[in-house]
Amino acid sequence: MFSDFSGHLQTGSLTYDIPKDSDRFWPFGKFQPAKFMHKFGYYEIRCRLPKNPGWHAAFWLQAPGIGSHPDARYCGVETDIMENYRQHTEGLIVCGNGYNGYGKDSVWPGHFKYPYVETEDGWHYYGVDWDESGYTFYADGKKIGWQGPPEVPVSQVEQFILVSTECHGYNRSFGKGAGEDGHSNLWGGKPVEILTKAVLPDAFVVDFVRVYDRVK
Description:
mainly beta; Jelly Rolls; six-stranded antiparallel beta sheet; 2% helix; globular; disordered N terminus
Protein backbone atom coordinates (compact mmCIF):
# COMPACT_ATOMS: atom_id res chain seq x y z
CA MET A 1 0.00 0.00 0.00
CA PHE A 2 2.78 2.42 0.88
CA SER A 3 6.16 3.27 -0.64
CA ASP A 4 9.41 4.01 1.16
CA PHE A 5 10.74 7.41 2.22
CA SER A 6 7.78 9.70 1.75
CA GLY A 7 6.54 12.49 3.98
CA HIS A 8 2.89 12.05 3.07
CA LEU A 9 1.27 8.78 2.07
CA GLN A 10 -2.45 8.41 1.40
CA THR A 11 -4.83 6.03 -0.32
CA GLY A 12 -7.22 8.69 -1.65
CA SER A 13 -7.54 12.45 -2.09
CA LEU A 14 -9.60 15.27 -0.65
CA THR A 15 -11.21 16.93 -3.67
CA TYR A 16 -11.30 20.32 -1.93
CA ASP A 17 -7.50 20.26 -1.63
CA ILE A 18 -6.99 19.85 -5.38
CA PRO A 19 -6.72 23.06 -7.47
CA LYS A 20 -9.79 23.66 -9.60
CA ASP A 21 -9.58 22.45 -13.20
CA SER A 22 -12.32 24.61 -14.71
CA ASP A 23 -12.58 28.23 -15.84
CA ARG A 24 -16.23 28.26 -14.83
CA PHE A 25 -17.78 28.53 -11.35
CA TRP A 26 -16.94 25.01 -10.09
CA PRO A 27 -14.45 25.64 -7.25
CA PHE A 28 -13.21 22.11 -6.70
CA GLY A 29 -10.66 19.91 -8.38
CA LYS A 30 -11.16 16.84 -10.50
CA PHE A 31 -12.10 13.82 -8.43
CA GLN A 32 -9.20 11.36 -8.31
CA PRO A 33 -9.90 7.63 -8.04
CA ALA A 34 -8.83 6.24 -4.67
CA LYS A 35 -6.43 3.36 -4.19
CA PHE A 36 -8.21 2.20 -1.04
CA MET A 37 -11.49 3.29 0.57
CA HIS A 38 -13.28 1.55 3.39
CA LYS A 39 -16.14 1.99 5.86
CA PHE A 40 -16.13 0.74 9.47
CA GLY A 41 -13.62 -1.67 11.00
CA TYR A 42 -10.52 -1.48 13.18
CA TYR A 43 -7.70 0.64 11.73
CA GLU A 44 -4.25 0.15 13.22
CA ILE A 45 -0.68 1.30 12.67
CA ARG A 46 2.57 -0.04 14.12
CA CYS A 47 5.17 2.70 14.12
CA ARG A 48 8.12 4.51 15.67
CA LEU A 49 7.67 8.24 16.19
CA PRO A 50 10.22 10.96 15.35
CA LYS A 51 12.77 11.62 18.07
CA ASN A 52 13.20 15.34 17.42
CA PRO A 53 10.74 18.17 18.18
CA GLY A 54 9.35 20.14 15.26
CA TRP A 55 7.62 17.28 13.43
CA HIS A 56 3.91 16.57 13.15
CA ALA A 57 3.48 12.86 12.48
CA ALA A 58 -0.06 11.55 12.08
CA PHE A 59 -2.22 8.55 11.21
CA TRP A 60 -5.74 9.52 10.17
CA LEU A 61 -8.82 8.94 8.03
CA GLN A 62 -10.37 11.35 5.57
CA ALA A 63 -13.19 11.45 3.00
CA PRO A 64 -13.00 12.95 -0.53
CA GLY A 65 -16.00 15.23 0.03
CA ILE A 66 -15.75 16.17 3.69
CA GLY A 67 -17.81 19.27 4.44
CA SER A 68 -19.79 19.02 1.18
CA HIS A 69 -23.10 17.95 2.76
CA PRO A 70 -25.11 19.57 5.59
CA ASP A 71 -25.07 16.24 7.42
CA ALA A 72 -21.52 15.03 8.09
CA ARG A 73 -22.67 11.43 8.15
CA TYR A 74 -23.02 11.58 4.37
CA CYS A 75 -19.77 13.33 3.47
CA GLY A 76 -17.28 12.03 6.02
CA VAL A 77 -15.62 12.82 9.35
CA GLU A 78 -11.92 13.45 9.84
CA THR A 79 -10.65 10.84 12.28
CA ASP A 80 -7.23 11.56 13.81
CA ILE A 81 -6.10 8.21 15.16
CA MET A 82 -2.70 9.52 16.27
CA GLU A 83 -1.03 12.94 16.18
CA ASN A 84 2.32 13.57 17.87
CA TYR A 85 2.60 17.37 17.70
CA ARG A 86 2.50 17.67 21.50
CA GLN A 87 4.84 14.75 22.11
CA HIS A 88 8.00 16.79 22.71
CA THR A 89 6.46 19.91 24.27
CA GLU A 90 3.96 18.40 26.68
CA GLY A 91 4.59 14.65 26.59
CA LEU A 92 1.18 14.06 25.00
CA ILE A 93 -0.32 12.20 22.03
CA VAL A 94 -3.61 13.39 20.53
CA CYS A 95 -6.60 11.64 18.91
CA GLY A 96 -10.17 12.55 18.03
CA ASN A 97 -12.59 13.70 15.33
CA GLY A 98 -13.63 16.81 13.41
CA TYR A 99 -16.29 17.45 10.81
CA ASN A 100 -18.08 19.99 8.56
CA GLY A 101 -15.00 20.78 6.50
CA TYR A 102 -12.41 23.44 7.29
CA GLY A 103 -14.23 26.75 6.92
CA LYS A 104 -16.36 28.71 9.37
CA ASP A 105 -18.69 25.72 9.90
CA SER A 106 -15.84 23.41 10.96
CA VAL A 107 -16.57 21.58 14.23
CA TRP A 108 -13.95 20.09 16.57
CA PRO A 109 -15.64 18.76 19.72
CA GLY A 110 -12.31 18.15 21.44
CA HIS A 111 -9.49 15.67 21.03
CA PHE A 112 -8.23 13.24 23.66
CA LYS A 113 -4.77 14.08 25.02
CA TYR A 114 -2.93 11.31 26.84
CA PRO A 115 0.64 10.79 28.11
CA TYR A 116 3.25 9.53 25.68
CA VAL A 117 4.93 6.51 27.27
CA GLU A 118 7.89 4.99 25.45
CA THR A 119 7.94 1.24 24.97
CA GLU A 120 10.92 -1.02 25.50
CA ASP A 121 11.55 -1.47 21.78
CA GLY A 122 10.28 1.92 20.61
CA TRP A 123 7.39 0.50 18.58
CA HIS A 124 3.83 1.68 19.19
CA TYR A 125 0.35 0.58 18.14
CA TYR A 126 -2.35 3.19 17.53
CA GLY A 127 -5.85 2.30 16.41
CA VAL A 128 -9.51 3.23 16.15
CA ASP A 129 -12.55 0.97 16.12
CA TRP A 130 -15.05 2.75 13.88
CA ASP A 131 -18.53 1.23 13.87
CA GLU A 132 -22.14 2.34 13.55
CA SER A 133 -22.21 3.65 17.13
CA GLY A 134 -19.02 5.72 17.15
CA TYR A 135 -15.23 5.74 17.40
CA THR A 136 -13.16 4.02 20.09
CA PHE A 137 -9.49 5.03 20.20
CA TYR A 138 -6.62 2.83 21.39
CA ALA A 139 -2.90 3.23 22.06
CA ASP A 140 -0.57 0.31 22.75
CA GLY A 141 -3.50 -1.93 23.61
CA LYS A 142 -5.18 0.52 26.01
CA LYS A 143 -8.52 2.21 25.40
CA ILE A 144 -8.09 5.99 25.29
CA GLY A 145 -11.70 7.06 24.83
CA TRP A 146 -14.87 7.05 22.75
CA GLN A 147 -16.52 9.69 20.59
CA GLY A 148 -19.92 9.51 18.95
CA PRO A 149 -23.40 11.04 18.83
CA PRO A 150 -24.54 13.57 19.78
CA GLU A 151 -21.15 15.34 19.94
CA VAL A 152 -19.67 13.59 16.90
CA PRO A 153 -21.66 12.23 13.95
CA VAL A 154 -20.61 8.82 12.67
CA SER A 155 -19.49 8.75 9.05
CA GLN A 156 -21.57 6.43 6.89
CA VAL A 157 -19.32 6.76 3.83
CA GLU A 158 -16.08 5.09 2.82
CA GLN A 159 -12.92 6.98 3.75
CA PHE A 160 -9.25 6.78 2.86
CA ILE A 161 -6.13 6.43 5.00
CA LEU A 162 -3.31 8.92 5.52
CA VAL A 163 0.12 8.49 7.10
CA SER A 164 1.71 11.92 7.13
CA THR A 165 4.65 13.95 8.42
CA GLU A 166 4.79 17.74 8.31
CA CYS A 167 7.36 20.27 9.49
CA HIS A 168 5.97 22.69 12.03
CA GLY A 169 5.92 26.13 10.47
CA TYR A 170 5.88 25.00 6.86
CA ASN A 171 2.15 24.55 6.36
CA ARG A 172 0.07 25.73 9.29
CA SER A 173 -0.02 26.21 13.04
CA PHE A 174 -1.70 23.76 15.38
CA GLY A 175 -1.97 26.16 18.30
CA LYS A 176 -0.66 25.39 21.75
CA GLY A 177 1.27 22.27 20.93
CA ALA A 178 2.78 23.40 17.65
CA GLY A 179 5.17 26.10 18.77
CA GLU A 180 8.05 23.89 19.72
CA ASP A 181 10.54 26.65 18.86
CA GLY A 182 8.82 29.02 21.29
CA HIS A 183 7.19 31.17 18.61
CA SER A 184 3.45 31.45 18.10
CA ASN A 185 3.56 32.66 14.48
CA LEU A 186 4.22 29.47 12.53
CA TRP A 187 2.71 30.48 9.21
CA GLY A 188 5.94 31.57 7.55
CA GLY A 189 6.05 28.84 4.93
CA LYS A 190 9.29 27.33 6.19
CA PRO A 191 10.25 24.80 8.89
CA VAL A 192 10.61 26.06 12.44
CA GLU A 193 14.10 26.92 13.63
CA ILE A 194 14.31 24.00 16.07
CA LEU A 195 14.40 21.54 13.16
CA THR A 196 17.75 22.96 12.06
CA LYS A 197 19.13 21.50 15.30
CA ALA A 198 17.59 18.05 14.82
CA VAL A 199 19.84 15.07 15.40
CA LEU A 200 19.74 13.01 12.21
CA PRO A 201 18.85 10.50 10.97
CA ASP A 202 15.29 10.79 12.22
CA ALA A 203 12.04 9.48 10.77
CA PHE A 204 8.43 8.48 11.31
CA VAL A 205 8.89 4.75 10.70
CA VAL A 206 5.89 2.59 9.81
CA ASP A 207 5.97 -1.19 10.06
CA PHE A 208 2.39 -1.73 8.88
CA VAL A 209 -1.08 -0.29 8.50
CA ARG A 210 -3.93 -2.79 8.76
CA VAL A 211 -7.70 -2.66 8.53
CA TYR A 212 -9.77 -5.39 10.18
CA ASP A 213 -13.44 -6.06 9.50
CA ARG A 214 -15.70 -7.44 12.19
CA VAL A 215 -16.49 -11.13 11.66
CA LYS A 216 -20.22 -11.55 11.13
